User: Fold these one by one.
Assistant:
Number 1:
Amino acid sequence: GQNIDQPTEMTATEGAIVQINCTYQTSGFNGLFWYQQHAGEAPTFLSYNVLDGLEEKGRFSSFLSRSKGYSYLLLKELQMKDSASYLCAVRRNQGGKLIFGQGTELSVKP
Amino acid sequence: GAVVSQHPSWVICKSGTSVKIECRSLDFQATTMFWYRQFPKQSLMLMATSNEGSKATYEQGVEKDKFLINHASLTLSTLTVTSAHPEDSSFYICSARLAPGGELFFGEGSRLTVL
């Protein structure tokens, strides 16, 4: 089986930096994904890590430690439009299925 | 990026009827598509893996006779919710990937309301 944990909700201030953590336990790990989802919409891809380390993509960065079963998504220079749910997802070798965590609802305040 | 389209976006139906949702990969061929269900304030729950030309693989707890999946071509997978009940009301989202191990692209989602 698999277990993916993220905080349920977070609040941050516009212009600040926020880190959303994700821990996972799974067999056959084959990559970790971060998606952004606005209410009523489908998820959109943010980042992907399969090796340990930091992946940077503009205002968004994602980090992975496979030995610790840990990842985080870092959002810099927060904007109001960043208010959304952020989903951590683990891909398994078997069938390439993507299993999602419960999501972290981020609220960005002025 | 690749485009995945779902139809309909919204559907309201009476209890006991069946509803079909289509998922199309518009600019690529997808041998595998995935169907997810999302209840309000919850994450995406994988329902099944749809394989072109073969039977779908269902996740534990998902009734295959209630959620019929057909993947008849490399660009189209359909999910039919049979004899729908109010508890089936949910946001259904499909996804497809260009190649094994590749990024998943999501459709816009289909919101089903069963009265």
Number 2:
Amino acid sequence: QKEVEQDPGPLSVPEGAIVSLNCTYSNSAFQYFMWYRQYSRKGPELLMYTYSSGNKEDGRFTAQVDKSSKYISLFIRDSQPSDSATYLCAKVTGNQFYFGTGTSLTVIP
Amino acid sequence: GAGVSQSPSNKVTEKGKDVELRCDPISGHTALYWYRQSLGQGLEFLIYFQGNSAPDKSGLPSDRFSAERTGGSVSTLTIQRTQQEDSAVYLCASSLIPYGYTFGSGTRLTVV
């Protein structure tokens, strides 16, 4: 079983829609979670990280962790064409990063 | 520098040749990672350097792969006798703290 599973999509939404990106993870050792955004031919850039269960907001982005179901989500409100990218979830345990395969998102103007 | 710098940005090599990929991390960052990203495969951990500690090489896929980090700064990933399955984007990331890694733009390696 992979450490992190992520639906690859692709996901296509109209501008202004609320986007929900999801991952599941295995193992429950102390860890924290991150979301990265990767534009084409660029390296991933960190969007958000969180240690605990619950929600963390940053502008139009909300990261949610449900440790009871081992589910992590990223919500994007009022999506913009500039949000079109691949989104990667990651679980960090110690010095090991485990990445999902990424979800490709296209926001249509 | 302002970010993590990787060179070359693109490399095409013939099967069987050796290649060297370079990563110049953000100044002062003690942690440095190498990852490989293949289409549809996500990021695959290769190797991790932290300060002067022995590197974690547990992700290197074969003994054809090696990496070093000189003076706690610049790192070089070497692939010997390249194979077509080595074709991928090789990403380097650095950090001063256990989170918030900054990635470079990667080296796109094509083995023909």
Number 3:
Amino acid sequence: DQQVKQNSPSLSVQEGRISILNCDYTNSMFDYFLWYKKYPAEGPTFLISISSIKDKNEDGRFTVFLNKSAKHLSLHIVPSQPGDSAVYFCAGRETSGSRLTFGEGTQLTVNP
Amino acid sequence: NAGVMQNPRHLVRRRGQEARLRCSPMKGHSHVYWYRQLPEEGLKFMVYLQKENIIDESGMPKERFSAEFPKEGPSILRIQQVVRGDSAAYFCASSPTSANTGELFFGEGSRLTVL
């Protein structure tokens, strides 16, 4: 049962343009959604989160949008930089517990 | 280094041997989570522990896998009689007593290779 799904395995954008990473979920019990970034041979690092009662959260170049009716969230990175090249994981946290359920990840490549 | 510490970073075992992976959470964190990432896949939850207690082990395989988080010392993920399918990156994460926004802090992972 894939509760969190990232349908695009990879995304390639030009430096300076916007990167949009998408995520769909099925579990209505998620109360927080998080995005993590992961470089090869390293652990995931937290990027940004959003509460299920909000529809937008912004932190510098990163903005996360949540559409609860569509059970969809997206991460916008603008402007994109080559250092943003990494795998991005979307995750949801259930109100009943602390564990996170992750999507499969999207490999973002930002070309100079 | 105040981050989550995992060791060993790389571990090679032959089929049938045992693998022990250790995790020291961030200072002040009492909640530990283990995740597994198989090649070309996402992070899969395995187990959630607090000191001396297993809170949620719904992601743990029923056989050969066990985890503990003793009162003193690191959390241990133990895999007995390893098979090739156990080859993966195992990530430990920690959170403080109340992870209000759900944020977990991850270690750099232990990469297990089973020959």
